[in-house]
Structure formats: C-alpha cells, structure tokens
Design brief:
This protein has two domains: 48 residues, Kinesin-like protein Kif23, Arf6-interacting domain (Immunoglobulin-like); 153 residues, Pathogenesis-related Protein p14a, CATH 3.40.33. The protein is of the alpha+beta class. Strand 8 and strand 9 form a beta hairpin. The N and C termini lie far apart (48 Å). Pfam families: CAP.
Length: 231
C-alpha cells in the first residue's frame, strides 16, 4: 500500500484589529491551513500571530538595563522626531553602513539599508547635542547609539568599531536579557533591525558627536535570544 499524498492545500487568513486604551493597535492574525490527502483524510493547522503597534513602553536605562519608570509612545515619537538636512559627508555614511553590515554578517543577520529619513533624524539630534556639548540620548522612538570623540571623526567605521567592541563583555548563554555595558553592540547586530540612519556634528569645544538611529529598534527585553547570535 502506497503512502498517502497531499492532493490539495487551502489556506485562509483572518485578521482582527483592536484599539487599546493606551493608544496601541493590536492585530491578531489567524492562519488556517487545511491539507487533503489521497486517502480521503485531511489535517488542519492553525497559527495565531499577535502584532502590537504604537504601544506606550517603559524606557530601559542603557547603563543599568532596568526600567526608568518613564514611558513613551514610539509611533508618536517617530512622527514628531525633528528632521534636518543631512550635512554629514556621504563617504562617512557609506563607511558606517559598510562597517555595520560587516559585523552583522559575522553574526549571521541580514544587512541594513541606509535610510535618508533616519539620517535626517540622526543629523538633527547630532546637531542638537553638539550645540549643547552634552552627550545624551533622544526619545525619538528609534533605536539609538551615540558616540563622542574629543577630536574629529573622519572615518565612519570608527564609531561602529567602538560600539561593537562591547562584544567582549556579552555572554552568549541561553536567552539572557539585557546585559549591562553591551547595549551598543547588541543594537548593531540586532536581527530584526532593517534600517540605519547616521550622522555627525562638531561640538563647540572641538569634539565630535556621532548619532546612529535604527528601525525597528533593538534591545527589547525578552528578545535577545532570537536577535543576537554568536559569531
């Protein structure tokens, strides 16, 4: 008697959308696949995926890895993030993108694409902190790495090398969550991140501020094991 074979496959997708009180949109996607076999039998497989967009989330302190007690809405923050003309030279942008992708390849994750919009966001923040000569993060809803150097930064690879150097302190053990002092590295190689924006600006005291923004952002508690891989 021959083994049964699949004679037909039917797949249906049902999507339900719910608006929560905190402003988040929750989409529940149910996919049902029915396979019919040559012997007249059939099987049904159902998968359910939930996507939450625009939720207010707790900020994580990059130094301690603990919630700060503050919350913000990433979707709204992204829309309202200042954008300015990119004044950073194109060679710097290309070098920074290449450095990111070299490290990402090493850790078995897809390449990033350079986003003009994200570069405008990064330039706006780099200009602001350079004018104030104050090293700080924005709250623009995107992932973010910031670097400062006492002199000029001519090579786009330099700040990326600095962020990546934290790999030496990262423990690739199971599904560990945020590890103190490694957040710059994990954002550089975060699997789910697709786009990069980067820019630099000169401070009034001669130092250089470099800002990189990432979309989607990385470093989500509970997601490190599926986004950060050993080289």
């Amino acid at each position: 008697m021959s083994d049964k074979t699949v004679v037909s496959t039917k797949t249906s997708v049902d999507t339900k959308t719910e608006k929560r009180e905190d402003g988040a949109t929750v989409k529940t996607i149910t996919t049902t696949t029915v396979e019919e076999y040559s012997d007249g039998s059939s099987s049904t497989k159902t998968s359910i995926k939930t996507i939450t967009e625009g939720a207010s989330i707790n900020q994580i302190d990059p130094k301690t890895g603990k919630p700060t007690g503050k919350a913000y809405n990433p979707s709204e923050a992204k829309k309202s993030a200042p954008r300015v003309k990119v004044t950073t030279d194109k060679d710097f942008l290309k070098q920074a993108l290449s450095a990111h992708n070299d490290y990402r390849k090493k850790h078995h994750v897809p390449k990033l694409e350079l986003s003009d919009d994200l570069c405008q966001v990064a330039q706006a923040w780099a200009d602001k902190i350079a004018a104030e000569d104050k090293m700080q993060h924005s709250e623009n809803g995107y992932g973010e790495n910031v670097h400062w150097c006492s002199g000029k930064v001519d090579e786009g690879k330099a700040p990326v090398d600095h962020w990546y150097s934290e790999v030496k302190d990262y423990k690739f053990v199971g599904d560990l969550d945020y590890q103190r002092g490694t957040g710059h590295f994990t954002q550089v190689v975060w699997k789910e991140t697709k786009e990069l924006g980067i820019a630099k600006a000169q401070g009034k005291n001669g130092g250089t501020y470099v800002v990189a923004n990432y979309n989607p952002s990385g470093n989500f508690i509970g997601k490190f094991g599926e986004n950060v891989f050993k080289a």
